[in-house]
Amino acid sequence: MILIIVLLYFMMIRPQRKKEKETRAMINALKVGDKVVTIGGICGKISKIKDNFVIIETGNVGTPDEKSFVKMERDSIKSVEKKQTN
User: Under a CB-based contact definition with an 8 Å cutoff, are residues 55 and 70 in contact?
Assistant: First the structure.
């Protein structure tokens, strides 16, 4: 019985905690200018960060001067695009 519990810990619980820790570190490291993808699939660039919220620029509405913004919670960020170096 103890062997099953230990095996369950190493196969399920430990990897999940590691993933949560990495996600929390990614969210805490967000900065203006990062390109992100939200849980809902919205892609954009962070234009402002306030407390637990981020304002994401999602693109142009009509002319290049008319930009659209979405205010979302930090926890709704799924991933940050890596910058490629050439």
Answer: yes
